[in-house]
Write a structure and sequence with these properties.
2 domains; Aminoacid_DH-like_N_sf; alpha/beta; amino-acid biosynthesis; 10 helices; 3-stranded parallel β-sheet; NADP; 6-stranded parallel β-sheet; Rossmann fold; 15% strand; EC 1.5.1.5; oxidoreductase; 41% helix; binds the ligand Nc1nc2c(c(=O)[nH]1)N[C@@H](CN(C=O)c1ccc(C(=O)N[C@@H](CCC(=O)O)C(=O)O)cc1)CN2
Length: 288
């Protein structure tokens, strides 16, 4: 079997175009445009690129972005105060604090200070709890984007074996819960998992989010499996690559997501979706 690539860039462009229409409708009906506060602390080069891309995506969709750039030396208390002021600002529908934060600032404290109503990243403990018990709420953007990718290829999770490699709070755990919500039989594998290749070979759907360049080769993949690569790594030549050795798995999988151009662009598209959803909620409306 030769796998097809799932084009995350094209799917993200479609979702962003849909959000542009929703924003225009909201503006026509209520004279209001959604606003996203984007907070970046420090000079992390990758974070600067992601934040720039998020702001550009907002602009293209007609979403107002409220940009807050703070120096690396910003104290935790100053950042928490900024978040509190954004919570109180009625023109701000969503608050995004770009991660990672400098080491002297607690991610958890900052995330938990964001109002759950504005938690468009879906990282707040309230959003996590809602996902756990199957109640509506903001879903983290990367797993939500992957769910959209699965829908785009008509992959029905029900009864399928899914293996999620990685147990982070922002990808692995929420991804596992979202697949469970879709009636997959889910295994979370991690650094202590014994015989990882054998566990992965059980999977009809393999989602890899471990941050180890090209870890997953054909030996990890069942014939016909769908392989989703969440990695954003550098290979031995410094070239961007994922956690999956795409060339190696192409012959075995039915679908593979590329890096770049796969899951990454979907993360940004789902951020816009969550922001529009937050703004619609103000007017008693929802996306569907
Ligand atoms: N507050 C948040 N922080 C972080 C998140 C997040 O969802 N919210 N996720 C990641 C980084 N991230 C978004 O912030 C992100 C990473 C990568 C991409 C992307 O489009 N990647 C491109 C390649 C980009 C490149 O050339 O370097 C791709 O895969 O095609 C988008 C968003 C951690 N922090």
């Amino acid at each position: 079997m030769t796998a097809k690539l799932i084009d995350g860039k094209a799917l993200a462009a479609k979702i962003r175009a849909d959000m542009k229409v929703k924003v225009a409708q909201l503006e026509a009906e209520h004279g209001y445009r959604p606003g996203l506060a984007v907070v970046l602390v420090g000079e992390n080069p990758a974070s600067q690129v992601y934040v720039r891309n998020k702001i550009k995506a907002c602009e293209e969709a007609g979403i107002r972005s409220i940009e807050k750039r703070l120096p690396e030396s910003t104290s935790e208390e100053d950042l928490l105060n900024l978040v509190r002021s954004l919570n109180e600002d009625p023109s701000v529908d969503g608050i995004l604090v770009q991660l990672p934060l400098p080491k002297h600032i607690s991610d958890l404290k900052v995330i938990d200070t964001i109002s759950p109503d504005k938690d468009v990243d879906g990282f707040h403990v309230n959003s996590a709890g809602r996902l756990l018990v199957g109640r509506p709420g903001f879903r983290p953007c990367t797993p939500a984007g992957i769910a959209e990718m699965l829908d785009s290829i008509g992959f029905d999770c029900s009864g399928k074996r899914a293996v999620v490699v990685g147990r982070s709070n922002i990808v692995g755990k929420p991804m596992a819960l979202m697949l469970l919500e879709r009636n997959a039989t889910v295994t979370i594998a991690h650094s202590r998992t014994k015989d990882l290749p054998a566990v992965c070979r059980e999977a009809d759907l393999l989602v890899v989010a471990v941050g180890r360049a090209k870890l997953v080769t054909a030996d990890y993949v069942k014939e016909g499996a769908v392989v989703i690569d969440v990695g954003m790594d550098r290979d031995e030549n410094g070239k961007l690559c994922g956690d999956v050795n795409t060339e190696s798995v192409l012959e075995k999988a039915s679908y593979v997501t590329p890096v770049p151009g796969g899951v990454g662009p979907m993360t940004i598209a789902m951020l816009l979706t969550n922001t529009v959803s937050a703004a619609l909620g103000k007017f008693g409306k929802s996306l569907n």
